[in-house]
Predict the structure.
Amino acid sequence: MRRMTARPANAHQARLLRLLRDGGPNSRAQLGDQIDLSRSKLAVEVDRLLETGLVVADGLAASRGGRRSHNIRLAPGLRFLGVDIGATSVDVAVTNAELEVLGHITQPMDVREGPVAVFEQVLAMAAKLKASGLAEGFDGAGIGVPGPVRFPEGVPVAPPIMPGWDGFPVREALSQELGCPVMVDNDVNLMAVGEQHAGVARSARDFLCVKIGTGIGCGIVVGGEVYRGTTGSAGDIGHIQVEPDGRQCACGNRGCLEAYFSGAALARDAEEAARDGRSPELAGRLEAAGKLSAADVAVAAAAGDGTSLDLIRDGGNRTGQVIASLVSFFNPGLVVIGGGVTGLGHTLLAALRTQVYRQSLPLATGNLPIVLGELGPAAGVIGGARLISDHLFSPA
Amino acid sequence: MRRMTARPANAHQARLLRLLRDGGPNSRAQLGDQIDLSRSKLAVEVDRLLETGLVVADGLAASRGGRRSHNIRLAPGLRFLGVDIGATSVDVAVTNAELEVLGHITQPMDVREGPVAVFEQVLAMAAKLKASGLAEGFDGAGIGVPGPVRFPEGVPVAPPIMPGWDGFPVREALSQELGCPVMVDNDVNLMAVGEQHAGVARSARDFLCVKIGTGIGCGIVVGGEVYRGTTGSAGDIGHIQVEPDGRQCACGNRGCLEAYFSGAALARDAEEAARDGRSPELAGRLEAAGKLSAADVAVAAAAGDGTSLDLIRDGGNRTGQVIASLVSFFNPGLVVIGGGVTGLGHTLLAALRTQVYRQSLPLATGNLPIVLGELGPAAGVIGGARLISDHLFSPA
DNA sequence: CCACCTTTGTCCTGTGACTGGAGAAAGTCA
DNA sequence: TGACTTTCTCCAGTCACAGGACAAAGGTGG
């Protein structure tokens, strides 16, 4: 079952592989236009890549007015696995070498069940994708987990919402099970990478990616590279204090952002409002389902429920204040909003924008787009595929 | 008067120059230990550097048990100028090629007088240093200004406290006047670079450098490099809101950090306390000098004045809250506190530490030193010298 | 003071990476 | 069909560099 995928022998080959990944099939001549190498050298490196099987010939290229060139493409059988482990669900997807999603499965799940149970589920989902004929095997996998990760080793460290995962050798264990190289990162970082690769952040070099799901986190990209901080906890903005002596937070402190706005907080506030009789709309939904989620608030808001709109605006204002601070500090070129609550859509975005544009200095906000991510739940898995492909498409 | 200082011809030479800058005189053999080059190649590059005059022979090296080697050092006549333009004062210093400060002058000044007047003063100070025999000319200058800078061009952009400087071609103008290459950056960034080169941050790769002077700013170093943001305004934390609908700030918003704690705010609060009769100590000083500054508060606090201590603690708490947010977000390996208010010393530091350690998560604060800068007013000028030397000691 | 070892500096040749030109092959366009 | 383009291949020449051989200069132990 183990696949020994070849690795590029030098930086040129790595560069070529990435060009083919990001630009699709290309002729040698077109590759030559994008890389600073002589035609002879280029031909040698392409030949070597063909020998390794990482790339294959792929018919004739479109004419550019002279002799037609043969196209080169990444091996069509290459498959990457993207895994996005959230607090309450798992996403698993297969991509080809160009990181196009060929198949995507989502399943509910509780991270608190611990790594063993979760991995069992992940492996079953991967097996299902394989069985459906989308892949014969995996050449690499990128995994996102909802907590800080010591990146080089691929090990979660002190994850607040994932008891039982602290120090678990995720990278090693999954690499063993899947029989392929694995990289592990924070789920928010993967989302940022995904939006950078295939979403709204394609042309951004320095940007923030705020993910509002069960918790709140922020991916930081500096010069096109994810910044992870000294201990891997950079972007952990959910526990920034927004209200001195405010609400009790699960982390033990008071007044954390997450205690006021996140999937979990929103659901709790909505249930409270429903029970207090402040929102018939929400009360109806509570009765029907027995509990409420952020999605219920989104639907109620879309239906014009004032209480729901207030909840979203309130949370948006609070989150906006924090983002405004981060914008002042970090001066990003773009802010992407993603995660489970993107369903709250324009109401949320409006609140965020108002706060940021009002509180940050004009120089920092002057040309600062604040937008929703465009990949939705695919961002994480695409980011995972991108992460491992970056790793594999680099000199050994 | 123009000096045409040679530039390294390739990356190896640049590397060697930096080794000599940071490690002082070295034998070829010692250089060979630090650089990944064969002895032959090394000899060739050193010879070329000797030809350019950038480095010179410097006697015999200490014995390592065999044939003694001749030392190599950077040309002893090389001189860099470090200029730190603050809101109310200018620092100008000359350094040798090893960035040791040979002479340092400070003068009061008001940036609001505009670039022309300020540069006149800076040039006079530089001339004074030259006249005292410390330099025959300058091979490069690094300038810090108290506001955002479009770094590649060396032009201030929309600086709030420097009316009249917006868009002024500082780099070009000073390069013309001084007859040498010039680099311009935010003063806070220079302080960070200074502390990184010769101060407490020597071994830090990712750290923050908070400068509390007339205003408040923060230098951000990522992977050993200064991060400046998309428009050059990264680190502008003085206008982060710490109190909704709080005090009016000069920027037009309300509740900014700078409105509560900064040299200017502290002086104002101290004068108010003196006039209200809350502090006889401060009242006495006010009567004597006609006005109060942050330094007066420092002295009064050292003398045990309760009101002054309260002011410092208050401001420290507010600033600490903001730093705590930044620590959660950025996960630095070190936080350096500097600027004019370092005289407030331990009282301030204690307040900052309390807030940060209490509000940020253990993973981020676990091994996070929060310390005062050790270079004081020299940090900025050393950072300036370092900035320009990095520029000159890189391949042309 | 001498023989021997270590370190340092210099010279020289071999190797691998790479460039760029010549020319053949394959195609387009009028 | 002929002229022009583009692409591909081959090859010789250049350049950077490594690493060995050797000489020079110093230390060390007898």
About this structure: The mean pLDDT of chain A is 91. The radius of gyration of chain A is 23 Å.
